[in-house]
């Protein structure tokens, strides 16, 4: 019997985002972004998502930008801006084949609509990409990862304004051109479906009445679909070898029972989640949106030619985050108990364990979703986020023992291989927060995902020195053996 391994050329690596990792929010010509207004959540609220998804208005945004006393950890992140060489050397030591990062749009165009790009910002990413390529690590670059220039919100009312399409396309063309010989893997919008949950995080939308407006949110999503398609077109024109993907927060949901009403509820949840990838991968709005939009009073204004643009320039591959699964029940009141998740709430699954933040741990669910997505789209898939947020302890000798993280990742990687055996075309795997970073939902550092520990607390205190966790050495062996060490036990 031959040894089990992952396919040759499989892209092992790790993932980060500029707004959570980079820091230096007011250095190098960078302008403020929507992420800079995110206040840290108190420890007793860490299992909630309300603060992350809460609507914002102009007054709140301006207050946050001027606030000198509030705690805004995403402004300093993990200081990758000053420590990128050290961090990339650690990734090289682990054997990374790829590293997912995002470009901060406001580091290139500080206000979002500047006539000329900020050369200092462009030069920074030149240096980062050069450092990655020195070690043979392929950059996987997200163009927009929850860090829209604040000027887009204040001056254009966010992505509901069609003019933002042209601003984004200009930004995309600028970086595609600048890095055409350094980057070939691109993602347009991170977890684009977060638009259906938070208009501010997903689309820099402001709601002066304090209530999220679904019509505005889905109109903004439409503009992002068009912008993504046009960016894909330009990326291929600048370098035909470029590969552009969309990125979805995957929310696999099981029917609570065999009651057909619960099964139908799970189908509805699937439609709500996969609407975003249906448009970007298949190139058109699915039929089920007609009823969904009608029942929710959502009206999409399309310009002439939009449908042709979506149909002509779909993405090359689909990427997604996977952290947990949920349960769908036609009458949620029958249960009454809820647990938090990746931008979602769900009743607990009695067959699964949960993390310290209440997220359901479901490795087999990853195999389920890989099979379903590949059956649905028949394009290459890429898992660009997956991981366990947990409390870690730095020992006196500088070691960090995290067997819980190793167990979590090993179980998911084994199920990935099962999916490949099932026939799924999987490009790679970049676990989230490969170096500890500030949490997207709660803005705390103590929710750690990384293979590398960062000596910083939730208030930003610490040396920011890096320490290798036990999982660092374990993942190095996984990559070095192309998975054989955990597939052939």
UniProtKB/TrEMBL annotation:
What the entry lists under InterPro entries is as follows: GH, GH_1_N_CS, Glyco_hydro_1, Glyco_hydro_1_AS
Q: Which terms in the Gene Ontology molecular function aspect does this entry carry?
A: 6-phospho-beta-glucosidase activity
Q: Name one GO cellular component term.
A: cytosol
Reading the lineage from the top rank, the first entry is: Bacteria
EC number, as in UniProt: 3.2.1.86
Report the record's Gene Ontology biological process terms. carbohydrate catabolic process
Q: Name one Pfam family in it.
A: Glyco_hydro_1
Q: Which family does it belong to?
A: Belongs to the glycosyl hydrolase 1 family.
List the protein's name.
6-phospho-beta-glucosidase
């Amino acid at each position: 019997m031959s040894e089990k391994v992952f396919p040759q050329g499989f892209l092992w690596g790790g993932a980060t985002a500029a707004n959570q990792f980079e820091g230096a929010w007011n250095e190098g010509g960078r302008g403020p972004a929507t992420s800079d207004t995110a206040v840290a959540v108190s420890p007793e609220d860490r299992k909630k998502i309300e603060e992350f998804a809460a609507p914002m208005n102009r007054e709140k945004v301006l207050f946050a930008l001027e606030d000198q006393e509030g705690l805004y950890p995403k402004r300093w992140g993990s200081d990758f801006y000053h420590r990128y060489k050290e961090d990339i050397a650690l990734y090289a030591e682990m054997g990374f084949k790829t590293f997912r990062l995002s470009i901060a749009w406001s580091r290139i165009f500080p206000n979002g609509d500047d006539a000329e790009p900020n050369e200092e910002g462009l030069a920074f990413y030149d240096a980062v990409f050069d450092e990655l390529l020195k070690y043979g690590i392929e950059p996987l670059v997200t163009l927009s990862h929850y860090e829209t220039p604040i000027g887009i919100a204040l001056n254009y009312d966010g992505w509901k304004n069609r003019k933002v399409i042209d601003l984004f396309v200009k930004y995309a063309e600028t970086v595609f051109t600048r890095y055409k010989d350094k980057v070939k893997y691109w993602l347009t919008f991170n977890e684009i479906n977060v638009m259906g949950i938070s208009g501010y995080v997903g689309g820099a939308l402001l709601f002066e009445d304090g209530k999220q407006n679904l019509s505005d949110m889905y109109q903004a999503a439409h503009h992002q679909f068009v912008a993504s398609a046009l960016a894909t077109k330009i990326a291929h024109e600048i370098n035909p070898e470029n590969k552009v993907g969309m990125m979805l927060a995957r929310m696999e949901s099981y029917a609570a029972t065999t009651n057909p009403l619960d099964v139908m509820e799970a189908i509805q949840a699937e439609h709500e989640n996969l609407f975003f990838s249906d448009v970007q991968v298949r190139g058109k709005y699915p039929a089920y949106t007609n009823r969904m939009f009608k029942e929710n009073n959502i009206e999409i204004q399309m310009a002439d030619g939009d449908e042709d643009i979506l149909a002509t320039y779909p993405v090359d591959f689909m990427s997604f985050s996977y952290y947990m699964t949920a349960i769908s029940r036609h009458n949620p009141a029958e249960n009454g108990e809820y647990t938090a998740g990746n931008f979602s709430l769900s009743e607990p699954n009695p067959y699964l364990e949960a993390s310290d933040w209440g997220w359901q741990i479901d490795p087999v669910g990853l195999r389920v979703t890989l099979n379903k997505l590949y059956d649905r789209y028949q394009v290459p898939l890429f898992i660009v986020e997956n991981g366990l947020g947990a409390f870690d302890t730095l020992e006196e000798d500088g070691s960090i023992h995290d067997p819980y993280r190793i167990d979590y990742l090993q179980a998911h990687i084994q199920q990935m291989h099962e999916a490949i055996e099932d026939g799924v075309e999987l490009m790679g795997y970049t676990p989230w927060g490969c170096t500890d970073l500030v949490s997207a939902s709660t803005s705390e550092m103590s929710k750690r995902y990384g293979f590398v520990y960062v000596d910083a607390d939730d208030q930003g205190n610490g040396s920011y020195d890096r320490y290798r966790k036990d999982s660092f050495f374990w993942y190095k062996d996984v990559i070095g053996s192309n998975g054989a060490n955990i597939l052939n036990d």
